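Discussion board: Methods & Data

I've been asked by a reviewer to show the raw model output for two of the constructs in my manuscript, not just the figures. I'm not sure how much to include, so I'm pasting the format here to get opinions. Each protein appears as its amino acid sequence followed by a line of discrete structure tokens. Is this the kind of thing reviewers expect to see in a supplement, or should I convert it first? Here is construct A:
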Amino acid sequence: MRPDAAQPELADAELERALLASLLADNRGFDRLGQLEADDLADPIHAAVLAAMLDIKGEGRAVSLVTVRSRFASVPFDDEGSVLDYLKRFAVKDADVGDMAAALRELSHRREILDLGERIAGSVHDHAASPTTLLGDAASDMDELLAKCRPVGKTLWTARDAVEQLLSAKDDSDRCVPTGLTDLDRVMSGGMRLGELLIVGGRPSMGKSTLGGAVARRVARAGHGVLVFSLEMPTRDYLCRMATDACWSRDLVVSYQVARAGKLNDRGQRAYEQGARSLVDLPLLIEERPGLTVAEIASSTRRVAEQFRRQGRRLGLVIIDHIGFIAPGGRYKGNKANEVSEISVGLQRLAKAEQVVVMALHQLNREVEFRDNKRPLLTDLRDSGSLEQDADMVLFPYRAAYYLERMKGQSDEDDLARQKKLEALMNDLEVGIAKQRNGPTSTVELYCDMAAAAIRDKWRAR
């Protein structure tokens, strides 16, 4: 939007001239422009000059009066000559291009906010759209503008700068979000990585949601912000599982189904209440609205990230339970593989753009059930769009006890052997790391008590 005469404080033509003159005088200033784009300049002539400069720079040529002249030498600016003559007359001393670019970017954002406010005000006269639709559109537009206005780190690196950063970094712990499960973090070289998409795939009752809830509680307890999209399970049920996990001990197991039904004995009730109270102050938010699209998930994530920022925290983990309940866009309606591909690409972009870990749970198809060895394989994702390709890490939880409970032996001896094996494996949870972009594949053995939705390091539990 170009400012009108009523808002002169939202544009600074003198600062725009100073920026352009500084870039002509010293091309090193282009490295300090940050996110400034040509359209961020309010004066259309200034915007056109900056666009030409950026094009010339992108072609690998020096930006000077000579290289720019062919595009603007004949463009009249005032009675005294061309645009370039005008810029040459503007003297700049000790100018900091980075500061000027940041100030002009902020003015551009303010003009966009003004423009958005006017569009929202004008939209109320569209009686063909319901107030809910108008508010939804306004919220989406505001969220996009918020994402655009939010500062981002450096994205374009010279080899020199990249090497210096690499050698100066002692470790990458600042990019890690530990799961809180020691053995899993060890295999993950410290934990999950910010900016990465992690898929947790499995058949029903394998422990996907249990693992997600256990990790969410531990991550929040460590001080990282956590946002859970519980698209299938109501918040009450999700928190009930977290509470029974929190109060689990070798001496007392509180079943979340019994707790949910309100039928705990006195001892169990006291433990359950204590576990629930331990969740009160955690930086944890749960969104239970069904039928969200990836765009709506991204919008909510950005708002929550901003909310945490204002509290002096950062959003570290986003859990989506699960991918099958994400509403697809209309572009590939009816084509399941393409719908899932669109969702996985969107989640990968969300992780990178917001620099969060996105843990997306995914229910595998029934093909697993027809194999003798029912442990999931990476190939089980290949019919699910581009999940395998887009994921930075893939975890497959697997419980042998689930299948042993449902087997029938050919004789009493077979049943006895099955029962003994079931007792030995009842609390075993294997987490297969089938893909890890920056680490090895492996299998981690954990302890689980599915009745209490509790997961522990195996050596700690026993």
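Construct B, same format:
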Amino acid sequence: MKFLSLFKRVRPAPKSAARNRRTAPRVGRAARAPEVEAAEALSSAATAWMKNLPPRLRPLELCRTYPRVANRIALCWDELPLIEAVFNELLVDRRGGRIGFPVPVAAELLRLHAWCERRIAAASASA
């Protein structure tokens, strides 16, 4: 009978229920991390970082759809070991079963990562 339970109809929640979910107390991991409105917007530092990149490297889709990730990359950009760790965390699924980024965003992340790899290689060659 478990197989048939997959075909149960699920009614969408009324709009008032969706509103209540937003104000309901958070549980688990969400309770530990406070919601920050600023994390949902692109920071001025990230905007400046993006404008300093060559035009072909500018992650416009990333900044539009995942501003929190773009803010994090911008903050770590000048610290080569740190930015390498950030890219590894973003691009490698260590937990298993993660969906990943949409193709345009993933392509931008991969281009930025390749640019960082060249920066790291140049820095180690000059050291």
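Answer (T.O., handling editor elsewhere):
This is acceptable in a supplement if you add a one-line summary per construct. For B, something like: The CA atoms of residues 79 and 120 lie 10 Å apart.
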